[in-house]
């Protein structure tokens, strides 16, 4: 691992790769509130964007890259971490390039296009001795963490069933060139929103699913051509626990509910940028943090930066994203087979 330690005099320098909505409206503002990392560089294929970001954040010319010249980042000591915020099909190539440049990697979800890509990303980062963390912001959100802890404490007895739903109604007037509508670039509801439901089912059980049945559907074929508009999938966990999950670009969905032997608990909404909250059958509430300060993204990036500085694994390492990709591969296989039960490869 590159020589980075907790007593360095400055926060880690982060370069955002891809300056779309998520970087512009969420990550860059969050990096103004972080303690252990800062916005140090940008990578974009649009010169006008680069100029705008330089004016807004004071980024020097030496820390601005285009995609073709990205590999020169290896020589830049201002930049310690590369955050890959690109369409899904570009996660693997830019993770591999960043690792080869000796930079730690933070990668947005979903980690990759499939489990094989995810494994290659993990192996590359390990080979080059850099950290790899996946941008599952919800696992850094305090109310979500309170629910995750119940998987171990079991205050309502044995877990029986989970319901996890994530989606929104959109794209009625969207341009057809958005990556979310392009299968080759990792589009579709399952990749974009379904991973929230899948990951939630896993962290709520504290276990790995062993099999899945899934069906996909399209209600607006004029918009969704070759990608899923809606995916419904049922995960089977050890000990008979099941999870009924749904994701959609055609419905507003935002619920996580766990049914146990002696009660229940839920978060609704469970994957919003702010306002995550919930309750349980015994009257307890999960509302320790409701507002947006600090933002989930700031919590996530500070935690991941501190893990690098303290030379310990991040809360959400590459292996976490890889396990989701193992399940995603099986979900897509089941949907292609008309809902046939598919066993999930073990990690």
UniProtKB/TrEMBL annotation:
Residues covered by the Gfo/Idh/MocA-like oxidoreductase N-terminal domain: 13-136
Pfam family, one: GFO_IDH_MocA_C3
Keywords: Oxidoreductase
UniProt-recorded name of the protein: Gfo/Idh/MocA family oxidoreductase
MF term (GO), any: nucleotide binding
Family per similarity comment: Belongs to the Gfo/Idh/MocA family.
Native source species: Pseudoxanthomonas mexicana
InterPro entries on file: Gfo/Idh/MocA-like_OxRdtase_N (IPR000683), Gfo/Idh/MocA_domain (IPR050984), GFO_IDH_MocA-like_dom (IPR055170), Glc-Fru_OxRdtase_bac (IPR008354), NAD(P)-bd_dom_sf (IPR036291)
Keyword Oxidoreductase part of the UniProt annotation: yes
Annotated PANTHER family: OXIDOREDUCTASES, TRANS-1,2-DIHYDROBENZENE-1,2-DIOL DEHYDROGENASE
Every GFO/IDH/MocA-like oxidoreductase domain range: 145-261
């Amino acid at each position: 691992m590159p020589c980075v330690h907790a007593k360095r005099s400055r926060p880690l320098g982060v370069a955002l790769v891809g300056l779309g909505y998520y970087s512009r409206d969420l990550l860059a503002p969050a990096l103004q509130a972080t303690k252990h990392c800062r916005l140090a560089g940008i990578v974009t294929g649009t010169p006008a964007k680069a100029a705008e970001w330089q004016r807004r954040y004071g980024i020097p010319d030496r820390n601005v890259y285009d995609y073709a010249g990205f590999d020169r980042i290896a020589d830049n000591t201002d930049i310690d971490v590369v955050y890959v915020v690109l369409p899904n099909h570009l996660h693997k190539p830019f993770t591999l390039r960043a690792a080869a440049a000796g930079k730690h990697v933070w990668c947005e979800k979903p980690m990759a296009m499939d489990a094989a890509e995810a494994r290659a990303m993990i192996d590359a980062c390990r080979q080059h001795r850099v950290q790899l963390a996946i941008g599952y912001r919800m696992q850094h959100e305090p109310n979500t963490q309170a629910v995750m802890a119940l998987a171990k404490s079991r205050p309502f007895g044995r877990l029986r069933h989970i319901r996890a739903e994530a989606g929104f109604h959109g794209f009625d007037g969207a341009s057809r060139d958005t990556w979310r509508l392009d299968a080759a670039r990792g589009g579709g509801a399952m990749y974009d929103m379904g991973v929230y439901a899948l990951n939630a089912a896993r962290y709520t059980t504290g276990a790995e699913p062993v099999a899945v049945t899934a069906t996909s559907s399209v209600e607006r074929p004029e918009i969704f051509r070759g990608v899923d508009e809606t995916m419904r999938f049922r995960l089977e966990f050890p000990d008979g626990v099941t999870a009924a999950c749904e994701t959609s670009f055609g419905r507003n969905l935002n619920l996580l509910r766990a049914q146990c032997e002696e009660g229940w608990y839920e978060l609704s909404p469970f994957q919003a940028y702010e306002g995550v909250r919930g309750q349980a059958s015994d009257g307890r509430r999960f509302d320790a943090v409701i507002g947006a300060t600090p933002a989930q993204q700031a919590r996530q990036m500070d935690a991941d930066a501190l893990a690098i500085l303290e030379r310990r694994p991040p809360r959400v390492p590459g292996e976490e994203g890889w396990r989701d990709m193992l399940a995603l591969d099986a979900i897509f296989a089941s949907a292609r087979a008309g809902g046939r039960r598919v066993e999930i490869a073990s990690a």
